[in-house]
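Exercise 7b. Backbone tokens:
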């Protein structure tokens, strides 16, 4: 009988020690996943921005990841599409209320026939501003402007390139 108690006690102690060796691992993945997402942002009952994404992950801290890309449409006061933004992947930083697009990032101002291309771009919706420190190409009607680093309004109506170069059409005066 003593042998049985010793064996059972040994097994119990062995089991407790093995359980103590298991480490707790915190889950850091998404808390929510949405497929085929379509969101509209509005001000004063008017749609201002439409967001489309194949996949969105919401993280524990409120940040959102868009690993398969994102597409946004910005609307003018009359409800027409003023400009679009497309990126191969995106991240929304909740605490800063800031977006980052990466990969092939493209903004088009449909009203002004302008297009911006870069590999990384940030957008602050509250300020309605976009910016980057990366290389950019802007096609502005007949002009092509290259540079590194840029600040602009989100619709590209006003932009500053920090280190510009490029080709600009100029008319000769007679």
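Sequence design result:
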């Amino acid at each position: 009988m003593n042998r049985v108690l010793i064996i059972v006690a040994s097994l119990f102690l062995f089991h407790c020690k093995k359980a103590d060796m298991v480490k707790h691992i915190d889950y850091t993945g998404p808390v929510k996943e949405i497929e085929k997402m379509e969101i509209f942002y509005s001000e004063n009952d008017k749609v201002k921005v439409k967001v489309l994404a194949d996949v969105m992950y919401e993280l524990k801290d409120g940040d959102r990841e868009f690993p398969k890309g994102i597409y946004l449409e910005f609307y003018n006061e009359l409800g027409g599409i003023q400009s679009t933004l497309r990126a191969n992947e995106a991240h929304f930083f909740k605490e800063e209320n800031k977006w980052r697009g990466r990969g092939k990032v493209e903004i088009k101002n449909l009203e002004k026939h302008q297009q911006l291309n870069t590999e990384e771009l940030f957008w602050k919706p509250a300020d309605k501003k976009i910016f980057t420190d990366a290389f950019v190409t802007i096609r502005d009607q007949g002009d092509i402007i290259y540079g590194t680093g840029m600040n602009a309004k989100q619709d590209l109506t006003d932009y500053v390139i920090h280190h510009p170069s490029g080709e600009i059409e100029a008319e000769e005066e007679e």
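Instructor comment: The chain has one domain: 33-167. Residues 33-167 form a domain with the lipopolysaccharide transport protein A fold fold (CATH 2.60.450.10).
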